[in-house]
Amino acid sequence: MRSLVVAVAQPPVIPLDVARNAVTHAAAVRAAAARVVVFPELSLTGYELAAPLVAEDDPRLAPLVAACAATDTTALVGAPVAGPHIATLAIDADGVRVAYRKQHTHHTENARFRPGPGPEVLEVDGWRLGLAICRDTGIAEHAADTAALGIDAYVAGAVDAPEADVVMAERARRISTTYGVWVAFASFAGPTGSGFPETSGRSGIWTPDGKVAARAGRTPGEMARATLVAEQLAQV
Hints:
Layout lengths: L2 E7 L8 H15 L3 E3 L23 H10 L2 E8 L3 E8 L2 E7 L19 E4 L2 E7 L6 H8 L5 E6 L6 H15 L2 E6 L16 E3 L5 E4 L7 E7 L7
Parallel strand pairs: 1-2, 2-3, 7-8, 8-9
Antiparallel strand pairs: 1-12, 3-4, 4-5, 6-7, 9-10, 10-11
Helix pairs in contact: 1-2
């Protein structure tokens, strides 16, 4: 059976300290034993909307590149990038690249960040991963446009208030059952940046029929992991 091991991580984050956060991310990659590890929105900087932009060739990311190379992992990491955009970086043995730019920015983000140009798919071992960031997951058009590209999973990094874990779970169930795909959401746990003294945690992975495959708790450093199996994909 065609399968893909995915983990959703919620590492502790030090606001604005990309170097320290990259080391923490690298440790999570090494611990995950997964082909793909998904991290929250703006995970490298914390949810700091004024954070300096992170370049693809930033030397502070070297420990994370090395961890991905050593474990044959693709890490999907949150960072502010040129544009400026809120973005997902795909990091693997080949280095760092911008894989997706958030389309549906929140009104609090619009003073600095531009909406991304459109949906994106990242392919890993033949699996087509549709990418999203936080508010994108609540926009029906985003899920529909991403699914139209032909995806096996819908993957997002997020940051939410503690009470929002129920909302994110409902979004995950709706997307999974509507499009017959796996869903993986990585959310911050604990404090992260000036806007979120506390966050929801509860990162999770859902099956194509909307059931919980794995879910973390609310503690920073926890992780959820599941094996995605192609035979469970629905024919929609």
